[in-house]
Automatic annotation (TrEMBL):
Residues 3-151 form the Trehalase-like N-terminal domain. SUPFAM superfamilies: Six-hairpin glycosidases. This is Glycoside hydrolase family 15 protein. Pfam families: Glyco_hydro_15 (PF00723), TREH_N (PF19291). InterPro entries: 6-hairpin_glycosidase_sf, 6hp_glycosidase-like_sf, GH15-like, Trehalase-like_N. It comes from the Bacteria. Residues 222-585 form the GH15-like domain. Keywords: Hydrolase. The keyword Hydrolase applies.
């Protein structure tokens, strides 16, 4: 791959998503869902693994791109010596189960431009070559259960297992194309007028943005927050309300390395931060859908609570490798599925109960069984909060008593007590208080290293952990507590590299994976939040602006940033990073945001406004 991660834009329809390169090539598309096998996998391989490129023939003098304002419709502008064209890419909203369309419209702006269309369809993550036939509407490709049709009036030519078209576009003319997917055993649906689809898609997104509450955000940051909120919406699986961590798999945390994971699933660790971001942004409907997904996903025996689930709540996410793909910039292995789903991570109990408490405070429509589920979870946690685990970062080395995990166990009991008192819910409050206080005392004794003057990643260790920056906003200790201030200072010294925060130091630490990684962008936002709570607003704003500067030209962020190579790394775009951006922006508002709300245990405002 020659394209940098920054060179991609995202389009989607809330069931699937595609990455479009600056050069006009769709190099990643999974059909019909985020977690389905890719039909275009050039992102993780080469041209033999599937792509769809539309671009001028020959040299371009300039390439610029943008999203149409307040939409997820991507427009790429190609300028050549003979003229100028735009390629508009979008995915219409999905109205039929397992049917997905990708629409591309080429429009002439000036002069006359020679264009080339090249299509390579490869099902099964770039491995399966389909049976392709030309039809009166364009092209029909089938491989087992999957069928893709290209609808176009262009004359097509097949060569070397690919499909080509050459055409000219003059000023004022347009050439539309639709790639349509359906299951082979289903009857294909009528492909609607492309311009009508474009108008409907633009209208949908602009109306959706109007629903938001962005007025508290300073004007200089408002575009970034809106774009991040749209990105979260694009990462949402509309049929269930689940939010994928990213629409990609195996984009490396280190170029050429092996820290490559499948992120097309929903993590419980994101639950509270997601709810706060949506509610502060005024998106109550999406917040309620996210809570419903969570309640369905975690239903059952509390001993079987997982750290992540599939987009419809699936529990089985077996991990395997795709050895026919070379990997992004030769970064291998390519993983599908995620074995971390079966890890023990006690922090998810706290994330879940913190989210449910916040939902009550925000007066979301009540979930009849929520409190019953919480009390059952706490019965289990009472007996198991001292178990060892692998922590929020899913280390694949030895389990430990992770300080953050213990803190989230404290949060589980603390939020349950708060909910019971505030909303007149029944529970063994005296016993919960006893356990809560015991956990708090243990963390302060065993999780704090006096020599480092900082809380550490796990009991008995010396490693620092950026997740401990969440301590003041959870209300575990006040932001001005000397131990919190010491932890911030220690993280600044040890984990702040070239202005960005590492999750934890991977040097001389056996996390079961090995190799270094980039700075974790969500952690950098957490440091900005810690600054805000500690009264260091100028430092918070400076760090926030630095983080905004590493977005690509479309306002998108990946999981991490490599300050040495000065490149985005990791899966892209990353919901966790965009959640951090949104929440930090609201934290810096005059009215205060999620960090202040969580610290006060009040939850988000009930109507999205103070």
């Amino acid at each position: 791959m020659s394209e940098r991660i920054e060179d991609y834009g995202l389009i989607g329809n809330m069931t699937s998503a595609a990455l479009v390169s600056r050069e006009g090539s769709i190099d990643w598309l999974c059909l019909p869902r985020f977690d389905s096998p890719a039909v275009f996998a050039r992102l993780l391989g080469d041209g033999e693994n599937g792509f769809w490129k539309i671009a001028p023939k020959g040299k371009t003098t300039s390439v610029t791109r943008r999203y149409l304002p307040e939409t997820a419709v991507l427009e790429t502008r190609f300028e050549t010596e003979k003229g100028c064209v735009t390629v508009t890419d979008f995915m219409p909203l999905c109205h039929e189960p397992e049917k997905v369309d990708v629409v591309r419209i080429v429009e002439g702006v000036s002069g006359e431009v020679d264009m080339t269309m090249e299509l390579s369809i490869r099902f099964g993550y770039g491995e399966a070559v389909p049976w392709v036939q030309q039809r009166d509407y364009g092209l029909h490709a089938v491989a087992g259960p999957d069928t893709v049709e290209l609808h176009t009036d262009l004359p097509l030519e097949g060569k070397n297992m690919r499909t080509f078209a050459h055409f000219k576009v003059k000023a004022g003319t347009s050439v539309p194309m639709t790639l349509s997917y359906h299951r082979t055993f289903q009857v294909p649906q009528f492909v609607p007028d492309r311009q009508q689809c474009l108008n409907e898609t633009v209208t949908f997104w602009r109306n959706w943005v109007k629903r938001g509450d962005f007025k508290p955000i300073p004007e200089k940051w408002r575009y970034a927050v809106i774009r991040s909120m749209i990105t979260l919406k694009l990462c949402t699986f509309a049929p269930t309300g689940g939010l994928v961590a990213a629409p990609t798999t195996s984009l490396p945390e280190t170029l050429g390395g092996g820290r490559n994971w499948d992120y097309r699933f929903c993590w419980l660790r994101d639950s509270s931060l997601t709810l706060y971001a949506l509610l502060n942004g005024g998106y109550r409907e999406e917040a309620a859908a996210w809570r419903k997904w969570l309640m369905r996903a975690v239903a059952g025996d509390p001993r079987q609570l997982q750290i992540m689930y599939g987009i419809a709540g699936e529990r089985s996410l077996p991990e395997y490798e795709l050895d026919w793909l070379a990997g992004y910039e030769k970064s291998s292995p390519i993983r599908v599925g995620n074995a971390a789903a079966k890890q023990t991570q006690l922090d998810v109990f706290g994330e879940l109960l913190d989210m449910l408490h916040a939902a009550r405070c925000a007066q979301l429509p009540p979930e009849a069984e929520a409190w019953e589920v919480e009390t059952v979870l706490l019965e289990h946690l009472e007996k198991n909060w001292q178990d060892l685990g692998r922590g929020i970062w899913e280390v694949r080395g030895d389990p430990h008593a992770f300080t953050h995990s213990r803190m989230m166990c404290w949060a589980a009991f603390d939020r349950a007590i708060e909910s019971a008192q505030r909303f007149d819910l029944k529970g063994p409050l005296d016993r919960w208080r006893e356990i809560r206080d015991k956990i708090h005392a243990e963390i302060c004794e065993k999780g704090f290293d006096k020599e480092l003057n900082s809380f550490v990643q796990y009991y008995g260790g010396k490693t620092l952990d950026a997740a401990l920056l969440l301590m003041p906003q959870l209300g575990f200790l006040p932001a001005d507590d000397p131990r919190v201030l010491g932890t911030i200072e220690a993280i600044e010294k040890k984990l702040l590299k070239d202005g960005f925060v590492l999750r934890y130091s991977t040097d001389n630490v056996d996390d079961g994976v090995g190799g270094r990684e980039g700075a974790f962008l969500a952690c950098s936002y957490w440091l900005a939040d810690a600054y805000t709570l500690a009264g260091r607003k100028e430092d918070a704003e400076a760090l926030f602006d630095r983080l905004l500067s590493v977005r690509n030209d479309l306002g998108l962020l990946s999981e991490e940033y490599d300050p040495v190579a000065k490149r985005l790394v990791g899966n892209f775009p990353q919901a966790f990073s965009h959640l951090g951006l949104i929440n930090s922006a609201y934290n810096l508002c005059e009215r205060g945001g999620p960090a202040q709300q969580r610290a006060g245990k009040d939850g988000p405002p009930a109507d999205g406004h103070e």
